[in-house]
Design brief:
It is globular, with a radius of gyration of 29 Å. Strand 5 and strand 6 form a beta hairpin. The strands form 11 sheets. Strands 15-12-11-9-18-19 form a 6-stranded antiparallel sheet, sandwiched between helices. It is an alpha+beta fold. The longest helix has 14 residues. The protein folds into 4 domains: about 80 residues, no CATH class; about 325 residues, Alpha-Beta Complex (Coagulation Factor XIII, Chain A, domain 2), CATH 3.90.260.10; about 110 residues, Sandwich (Immunoglobulin-like), CATH 2.60.40.10; about 90 residues, Immunoglobulin-like, CATH 2.60.40.10. It starts with 11 loop residues before the first strand and ends in a 15-residue tail after the last strand. It holds the Pfam family Transglut_N.
């Protein structure tokens, strides 16, 4: 304090928000808002004390000054409104008693909070159920403009009022709409075609930072995203405002447009799925989010914990493209009428898959196959503290083939208002056993084979079987794009014999017809002559792409520049032209774009070197993506530790590990 007459009214000269002191206990020191040199701002978490220091115009005399100041702590309530706050000095006395708070998004366990609130890098699973592909995603919730953008999306795009911003149910439901663009010009515009013009294809993004910085600057939807992009951005926003959140992938995920809890496919005499009749679909994978909160609105019942929310614009929910929060515990019990959108989430993980033989508009449908096991497989998220997959399927559904699973399905069907009739069953025919297989681990650039094995169980009868084998290129949403190859084969399967039909597909046959994520649909329609029994099967797969290898030169130290090398081996029989590496990592405030100076010949490597200076010590991650006209959507990552810098004369930054 400064000197001055004690007869003068004491005034406040300066308020120090103690950013360096408040950051570590609140785990907010990594926010760019806290560490920037120009106009830094205090970021604190609700329900936790923080420190302020106030400088007065003169010494404080409790006998003469008839005011009291809060010198040490102010505690934001556990249900505080999320947003920007102005602080005024209150002269009222404050109780010294202990405080006890229970935030609605309270999660117990430092390791869980480190993963679901503080981790700025994660894995998002893509591919297909038989070719799982983990892809790195940089959430970057602490970087420049990200927190401001999250608050903008919440208040301006999501239009959540003051009272709603203290409610995580309303907040996350609004965020699931604000991230997509159809209703409100939110952060990301979806595109599920293979035409992205001059804009960024969804497979080219490696994190949320560039997307949200671009949106915050221009206030226009960023082009383009698909489900994992929407989910990655939504995770960033939730973690930025302190809501525990994780990305979740479901393989063979149903999109039920009719609320029938079934996904219905119609197949013609050529074994082709009839896109013009198929309103429902099964995506090779679908990515959404889970947020952690209590659900007092669903009492009585224990429906708190993880809640599913989904920013991918699929179906309208209360006249907007949004989904959730849907209690995962309620979904598992088949409680499809619980808010919000539980029926849609239940279908995504547990619908029945039905194939119908379509013979014309005046002919009855014939049930070819009913699959009650295929939908909702290998539900995946990143493990806590490890770059590994955690399977959380059992949190959404009981084990397939169990009595509990079928009972749950029947309970859900009884609550559904849709009555879907099943018309005709195939005649029971067991003489020929079919086994449909995809041979080999398919690496892009190599051939592969599709096989159907037929075993005649009869000891007396020979059967003539007509088989159609086909391979089509598909989007990951299940939409068929181009036919790649088809074989028609007629074969006599003698009594007790086994016959194998194999179709070989070469790189030259499939390469030019590949779409976005190198996904295929393989199908087999077999007809036994004489009794018109038909067997139909299909499967999804993708070709595997190489990984980018990243190597660090030397030992990374906080505040010191170091070098790293990224390398990719060309797996194709053709050269890669105009290749480019995209890099994000510690201390890189905007994405690095490094061009490969020459063509990359088959079976040779492309290598680039780059530098970065980490601001913080502790665990960190470098992520990389490679794009070229001939090969794109290739990525890699490296986890490593940054050592703290040496203290000199007692100075240095204080950071939380």
């Amino acid at each position: 304090t400064d000197g001055g007459g004690e007869n003068e009214v004491v005034t406040v000269k300066e308020v120090d928000l103690c950013l360096a002191e408040n950051g570590p206990p609140h785990h907010t020191e990594k926010y760019e808002l806290m560490e920037r040199e120009k106009d830094p701002r205090l970021v604190v978490r609700r329900g936790q004390q923080f420190v302020m220091r106030i400088t007065l115009s003169r010494g404080y005399n409790p006998e003469k000054d008839a005011v009291s100041f809060i010198f040490t702590v102010i505690t934001p309530a556990a249900d505080s409104i999320i947003g920007q706050w102005n602080i005024e000095i209150d002269t009222k006395l404050k109780n010294d008693g202990a405080f006890s708070y229970m935030d609605q998004v309270y999660m117990e366990g430092d390791n869980l909070l480190a993963e679901y609130v503080l981790a700025d890098t994660g894995l998002i699973w893509r591919g297909s159920y038989n070719r799982l592909r983990p892809c790195v995603w940089k959430y970057a919730q602490f970087e420049k403009d990200i927190l401001d953008c999250a608050l903008y999306l919440l208040t301006k795009v999501g239009k959540v009022g003051l009272s709603g911003r203290s409610d995580p149910i309303k907040t996350t439901r609004a965020m699931s709409a604000a991230v997509n663009s159809p209703d409100d010009n939110g952060a990301v515009q979806g595109n599920w075609s293979d035409d992205f013009g001059s804009h960024t294809p969804p497979t080219k993004w490696i994190g949320s930072m560039k997307i949200l910085q671009q949106f915050y600057k221009n206030k226009k939807p960023v082009k383009y995203g698909q489900c994992w992009v929407f989910s990655g951005v939504l995770t960033t926003i939730c973690r930025a405002i302190g809501i525990p959140c994780r990305t979740v992938t479901t393989y063979s995920s149903a999109h039920d447009t009719q609320n029938s809890l079934t996904v219905d496919y119609f197949v013609n005499e050529e074994g082709e799925t009839m896109e013009e009749l198929n309103n429902d679909s099964i995506w090779n994978f679908h990515v959404w989010n889970e947020v952690w909160m209590d659900r007092p609105d669903l009492l009585p019942g224990d429906y708190g914990g993880w809640q599913a929310i989904d920013a991918t614009p699929q179906e309208l929910s209360e006249d907007m493209f949004r989904c959730g929060p849907a209690s995962v515990a309620a979904v598992k019990q088949g409680e499809v009428l619980r808010p919000y959108d539980n029926a849609f989430v239940f279908s995504e993980v547990n619908a029945d898959k039905v194939f119908w033989r379509y013979a014309g508009p005046t002919q009855p449908l014939k049930l070819l196959r009913k699959d009650v096991l295929g939908i909702g497989q290998l539900i995946s998220t990143k493990a806590v503290g490890e770059f590994k997959r955690e399977d959380i399927t059992d949190s959404y559904k009981y084990p397939e083939k169990s009595d509990e699973e079928r009972a749950t399905m029947l309970r859900a069907l009884k609550q559904s208002e849709s009555h879907f009739s099943r018309y005709y069953l195939n005649d029971d025919f067991n003489d020929i056993n079919f086994n449909f297989e995809l041979r080999d681990d398919i690496v892009i650039g190599q051939p592969f084979s599709v096989v159907v094995v037929m075993k005649n169980r009869s000891r007396t009868e020979n059967y003539t079987v007509k088989v159609i084998l086909r391979v089509d290129a598909v989007l990951y949403t299940g939409t068929v794009k181009d036919a790649i190859k088809r074989d028609d084969v007629e074969r006599v399967v003698k009594a007790g014999a086994v016959e194998e039909i194999r179709m070989e597909v070469t790189y030259d046959e499939y390469y030019r017809r590949l779409v976005d994520q190198c996904a295929f649909n393989i199908a087999c329609l077999a007809t036994i002559q004489g009794n018109n029994y038909e067997y139909f099967a299909q499967d999804d797969f993708r070709v595997r792409k190489p990984d980018i290898k990243i190597k660090i030169e030397g030992e990374p130290v906080q505040g010191q520049e170091f070098s790293a090398v990224a390398t990719l081996k060309n797996p194709l029989p053709i050269p890669l032209k105009k290749g480019q590496f995209l890099i994000e990592g510690p201390g890189i405030t905007s994405q690095l774009k490094i061009k490969v100076p020459q063509n990359v010949a088959p079976n040779t490597e492309a290598t680039v070197t780059f530098k970065m200076t980490p601001k913080f010590s502790g665990r960190s991650t470098i992520v990389a993506k490679f794009v070229a006209k001939e090969l794109e959507d290739v990525d890699g990552f490296l986890n490593f530790m940054v050592e703290p810098k040496n203290e000199v004369n007692g100075t240095g930054n204080s950071t939380a590990a």
